[in-house]
Amino acid sequence: MRWLRTERGLDFGTYAQLWSWSTADPDAFWQAIADFFDVPFHDRADRALAEERMPGAVWFPGATLNYAECALRRTGDGTAVVALSESGRAELTWDELREQVGSVAAWMRAQGVNPGDRVVGYVPHIAPAVVCFLAAASLGAIWSMCSQEFSAQGAADRLAQLEPVLLVTADGYDYNGSTHRRDAEVAQLLDLLPSVTATLWVTNLGGPAGAGATAYDAVIAEPHPLEPTPVPFDHPLWVLYSSGTTGRPKGIVHGHGGIVLEHLKMLGLHMDIGAGSRFFWFTTTSWMMWNMQVSGLLLGATIVLYDGSPGWPSPDALWDLAAREELTFLGTSAAYLIATHKSGVRPSDGRDLSRLESLGSTGSPLPESTHAWIKEALPHAWVGPASGGTDIASGFAGVVPTEPSRAGEMQARQLGVAMEAWDPEGRPVVDEVGELVVTRPLPSMPLYFWDDPDNARYLDAYFSTYPGVWRHGDWVTVSARGSVTVHGRSDATMNRLGVRMGSAEIYEVVDQVAAVRDCLVVGVELADGGYWMPLFVVPSETGGGTSELAAELKQLIRAEVSPRHVPDEVIFTSALPHTMTGKRMEVPVKRLLQGVPLDQAVNPSAVDDPGALDQFVALARAGRG
């Protein structure tokens, strides 16, 4: 805001005024972002937003740059990457990172990799994944990746679409105190990727490279200068994927320029990350938060990676890591914070967390009670829930360092995001529940979906409800003061006796019960016109699935939410399915309970525990509800 006053003559007294300008004049705003962060363009554009439409906005026409060049601007012996696992620790300085990227890029170029070719990874959350992504990006190749907990078929469902020319892989990983070798899965994956002509093998557990593969350590031992290729602003950078729970995962393509600008804005302004920050987010290589974390390099931050279980060797493992590594920003999921809260762990007990300035939370809404617990345990830390999506590789609403952080809310809509809540008639509503829509384009919106030549799937995903306006599929409330509350996916909204209800309100209550390890609620429209709203509960080890617990849960929901939110019945189970990034699978479960065949309702390879789906098929066959 000071810079805008000095450099642009724009005086904003409040964040709300700044946000209003950023969405009213996106051309000026995004040009200001590029100038404020001194983006190293090779060729510059005359304007930021040349043609405004959705989809298909034209951003920075004629401009050229390269993400990898932007990420590796810093040099010297300061720490760029800290890579942690359950069995070790390693560091890369800025000079070492740049040298390794140059060596891998030279090897890729020697294999015939050209701009636009696809390079894919099947690797854990380790430093070589960062190096290989940056190397591919430096060449103008398109990067895509899956973590190794995916089966070979699950990875191929995503990566084979791209017809990649090169595979980066590893021999396995450690998790929860156990070693998981993936040599056999790599061999199966190569059979499913016939377009691959070369393989780069990272020895993560020990032993030789796989047959026919080139050893990563041998490649980085050969020094080569980094020579980034300038590419157009909208040149594809990477392909991320939809969850793939109800069909083939959609390949979501983002561009170099849009991601550079969006991540500089999100990390540098909203998350207050810069040189000197030690930035950590608990993630896997399959989740867009991996991409966001790597972008910490754009700001000169030290990124701290962790490949392992957040609960090993104890439930407070991440808090120990935060103290040991002197993190300034700790990002994780709401589910982890809830679980830590319920376990009785106090983050600050016996640990020096004085450098921890910020705590990020995403993946699902953060309950008010857990927010209050964090503020009591870490009064000096700023709690920042955020909500966004793989679709834009960033956030719609969330953290703002200058605004108050209130329990149960996200602080504000993010800069440049013309987000509103709309009713079914397409009218904006305030202090009422509505569909999350975005009315003006963002530079990190997808360029296109992979293998969608007529844009049919892209248009159907976001623009079929309100033509020309992005409908994200979340159910939100925007308050009069600008804060945001997310109530859950609108396609999983429960509509009981004409009253719409969000699952998040029920989870807020049930997740806090010590006897509950996991839960899932759905509302099922039945063929006879009836409506069934069951609550599925996985009891904790100390709390059995008893009629007393079921009655307690119903009473709590009645007292703390409303009588309308009380489920028709509580069904105890030993396991519930989640996506590979840990999200509850409400829509697939609802479809299974409505009798949709398993192979049409859900893709088992995209589920963390496919066996947990069988119980819902059995319930549908038994005519429950």
Give a verbal description of the structure.
The structure is a single chain. This protein has 625 residues and is α/β, with parallel strands linked by helices. Helix 2 packs across helix 3 (26-36) and helix 7 runs parallel beside helix 8. The protein folds into two domains: 67-309 and 386-478, Rossmann fold; 493-621, 2-Layer Sandwich (GMP Synthetase, Chain A, domain 3). A hairpin with a 5-residue loop joins strand 28 and strand 29. The strands form eleven sheets. A seven-stranded mixed beta sheet has the order 5-4-17-16-18-19-20, sandwiched between helices. A five-stranded parallel beta sheet has the order 7-6-8-11-12, with helices on both faces. The termini are far apart. The mean pLDDT is 91.
What's the short story on this structure?
The protein has 625 residues and is α/β, with parallel strands linked by helices.
